[in-house]
Write a structure and sequence with these properties.
This protein is of the alpha/beta class and 438 residues long. 24% of the residues lie in helices and 25% in strands.
Length: 438
Amino acid sequence: MELGFETIGNACIIAHDRGPVLATDPWLFGPAYFGSWRLSHAVPEAQQQHVAQCRYLWLSHGHPDHLSLPSLERLRGKTILLADHVGGRIARDLRGLGFDVRVLRCGEWVQLSDRLRFATIANYNQDSVCLIDLDGHLIVDANDAGNRGAGRFLQRELPRFHKRTFLACLTGYGDADMIHFHDEQGRLIPPAAAQKQEFGPAIAAMLAHYGIQYFAPSSSMHRYNRTDSVWADAYATPIEAHQQGFDGGARTCLPAFVQFDLHTGCYERIDPPANDGPPEPPAAFGDDWSTPLEADDLALLRSYFGQFVHLREHFDFVNFRVGGKDHTLDLGRGHGRGITFAVPRQSLVAAVQWQAFDDLLIGNFMRTTLHGDFWGKQGAPALYPHFTPFVTKFGDNGGACTVEQLRGYFAEYLRRGFMDFAADAEDQEMKAALARYL
């Protein structure tokens, strides 16, 4: 392709300037989240080769459906571009594995080829957005990042682009997160994704808000892969759902997988085969639900969860049901809230050792029981705002666990000038939870 881009996989965009130059979030094969997710469609050999020919890779954040280490192992020798995440964990870990990593200052454009410029913005949730300028055409890759301040940069830059503009970001029914909740009677709490509400109108509204012409579906092209998580397949987002209810007038919602020629303005569908096949047992990924915790495991759990000061102020306990036995970690008193995680020992210990607890939550084979009031303003149970971000985003990835560390962490994002909270109830809850650290 002379000038253009392709979308493939879960969140991979391949940008071409007289050949492939840059690929974003290349998850090209294999499972993710302790084997719980697989790609919804196989990545064709042609696109595999195009990614392999790229000189640069950009990784938005550390989730394994975006940062796929097995895929990266096949792509050694590339320069990996990263936003400047506070804490620098991704850059540090990848360099430790021998990868060539380049961290970019937020909001600064860099030239990657004759007609390709690139900029990226890190946000306080340890995610990032990138902007790709292909000879005056703009592609915005927001993956899972939301706004969280990148909208300021986008609104500043958009008026400079007078050719075609594109937005790729996460949309869907809402299963690309922790949805395996149960009440104290053991009943599954139906996730919001069960409603399967059309989100085409929201895509059209988003394009109109920013004045962008095209939408490219992204970050929701997965299925469930384990026998203990395949129940969640009922709530996964099919690729055709993005166009249902979409009425954007002159704006266009593209198919999920396309080749877009920017010279002609024409695009062709890529028609990859569905990644069908039976789910795999937990044992295929080293898990056995009957294995009990060992004494050293309990010490590891106490040390890990004891470091997150914010949890003590909002939860009485976290309980782990492993091998059929409960192990309760006392955190605080009088909050009226606790959590029970039923989970196989092997994945639990690995997640804590790797400081990747989010991989257990999003995998949705771990069964989470909520004790007390967890019903947020959205009318649905959630581990936001007081558990998930403080453990997995600010703690595991940002290295901020104490009050002093958290204040320093947010001070740096505020200093950069790219930090915002939307007016919706969920973002305002998050802002209130962060008040003492801001």
